[in-house]
Amino acid sequence: MTVETIMTKQVITVQEDATIEKCAHILSTNRLSGLPVVNDAGKLVGIVTEGDLIRRKTDVQTPAYLEFLGGIIYLDNPNKFFEDVKKTMGLYVHEIMSTELITIHPDDTVEKAANLLVHHKIKRLPVLDDEDQLIGIVARKDIMQYLFQDK
Questions:
Q1: What are phi and psi of 64, to 5 degrees?
Q2: Among 20, 38, 15, which Cα is nearest to 89's?
Q3: Fewer Cβ within 10 Å of end Cβ, the chain: N or C?
């Protein structure tokens, strides 16, 4: 079975320059946990999730460090800390979205989609055609319905 047969074809997206509040409204109104983010040309540029929005409202964990001879030695990567601070202060979707995208092709198998979701610990896969246009999305629930449908 191919991804095309189980994917959601009517994909709700959000523009990368949309506000966080607009994104939160779209997610809650449509009872979604994540949205593909597109630019003005309609190209997929990221994914924004409920987790991204919730993380924005939480305290940022400072990296572990030692003070030694008047200096600071970081035990954790301080770049991750600065990235988290930037996301916490974001007002627009492009400031908090994930840009490392895992995608799938409509002709790929459902098994491949399931493996990608499990391996990358993600909840949804944007489906792109040969021209890299977003044509659908496959979520965990889609795969569950396929795997455990009444026979």
A1: -65, 140
A2: 20
A3: C
What the block records as the tokens of 136 is 């659908």
User: Residue 66 pairs with which residues in a beta bridge?
Assistant: 73
Residue 39 one-letter amino acid? N
Task: Return the amino acid letter for 145.
Answer: Q
Q: pLDDT tens digits, the chain, 151 residues: what are they?
A: 999 999 999 999 999 999 988 988 999 899 998 999 999 988 999 999 988 888 766 554 655 666 767 776 766 766 665 565 455 555 789 888 999 999 999 999 999 999 999 999 999 999 999 988 999 999 999 999 998 876 5
81 sits in which H/E element: helix 78-88
Distance between CA 95 and CA 73 in Å, rounded? 28
Residue whose pair of structure tokens reads 């055609």 in the numeric block: 129
List, as one string, the DSSP characters of 42-62.
S-EEEEEEHHHHHHHTSPPPP
| Distances, alpha carbon 85 to alpha carbons 121, 149, 151, in Å | 23, 44, 50
**pTM, whole model, 2 decimals?**
0.74
- The letter for the amino acid at 75 is L
Token reading at 61: 């964990």
